[in-house]
Design goal:
Length: 320
């Protein structure tokens, strides 16, 4: 059962392979009709499979290696991107991309996690797990966005901040805390999008936004399902149960008012059509920015503060 749940895309891959085989064989109109029929079946099957994903399966989709990353969205949605590198204290951290660009003709600031595609890039970007210098670089851009009155967009997709010895020695916790504080105090509009994995404080460090959007099949949690299962049951095999209990999916988090809106994904997920996903996200980013531009700066800060203060509140039942 576990293997089947992990390999829920197998029927899709089988159909894709059949279409590919038929496309390579000459066959005239009959072959074209058959390919078209299979493509319609594939589209319907994608919608069916992705409409009933379990929380654990959504976590697997959020980690899909072909999902678009920050640099992909920058390429699709922004122009004139100028990347800022280094934290002016220790080094540059490629796990976080940060800089300035133009969006719909207006200057904006951008920050986002960046995972790698091939093995070399994954190692260079530390699999999207930032070190302290990554968060200090992010703070540099936040402060410049504040100084030059540029709205800030962030893109969240990380398993979490890097927990290595060197990162701890260089002040990982302090760097995350300063990033949280800086972002909370910004008086410019901030729009956050959780595009894949939103893991722990490593994600939250660049996610204190006036509007927090989340892609339909992304996940967002204080710890990974595997980590939760290891702590609660000393058994990572219970990751599926942990994913269900943790309420890590976009619909759950919308109900809990942790996020503000769910961004739909194309059939088959963002990885199936990155360009279409960027187009869908574009409308949500523009709507959020237009709404926030009319809010006075002091009100932005206070409203953002109250928004995050409300998270995690609970009531106490009365017994008679």
């Amino acid at each position: 059962m576990a293997a089947e749940e992990d390999d829920f895309e197998r029927p899709l891959r089988e159909l894709e392979k059949k279409i590919e085989e038929l496309s390579g064989v000459p066959g005239g109109d009959d072959r074209a009709d058959e390919i078209e029929r299979l493509e319609r079946r594939l589209q319907a099957l994608r919608q069916e499979v992705y409409a009933r994903l379990s929380p654990w399966q959504r976590a697997l989709v959020a980690r899909h290696p072909k999902r678009p990353y920050t640099l992909d969205y920058i390429g699709f949605l922004f122009t004139d991107f100028v990347e800022i590198q280094g934290d002016r204290k220790y080094a540059d951290d490629p796990a976080i991309v940060a800089g300035f660009a133009t969006y719909k003709g207006a200057p904006v600031a951008l920050i986002g996690h960046q995972k790698g595609r091939d093995t070399r890039e994954k190692v260079r970007r530390n699999f999207g797990m930032p070190r302290p210098e990554g968060y200090r670089k992010a703070v540099r851009v936040m402060e410049m966005a504040e100084k030059f009155r540029r709205p800030l967009f962030t893109f969240v997709d990380t398993p979490g901040a890097y927990p290595g010895k060197g990162a701890e020695e260089r002040g990982q916790a302090e760097a995350i805390a300063v990033s949280l504080r800086t972002m909370a105090q910004l008086s410019v509009p901030t729009v956050v999008t959780v595009t894949g994995e939103g893991g722990s404080g490593g994600a939250l460090a660049i996610a204190i936004g006036d509007r927090v959007l989340m892609l339909e099949h992304a996940v967002y949690s204080v710890i990974s399902p595997e980590g939760c299962a290891a702590i609660l049951w000393s058994d990572q095999g219970k990751s599926r149960e942990a994913a269900r209990a943790m309420r890590i999916t976009a619909p759950d988090l919308k109900d809990l008012e942790i996020i503000d809106a769910i961004v739909p994904e194309p059939a088959g997920g963002a990885q199936a059509d990155p360009a279409r996903q960027a187009q869908i996200l574009d409308g949500h980013l523009m709507a959020a920015l237009e709404e926030l531009r009319s809010v006075p700066p002091s009100e932005l800060v206070e409203t953002r503060y109250q928004k995050f203060r409300r998270m995690g509140t609970f009531g106490q039942a009365k017994f008679f």
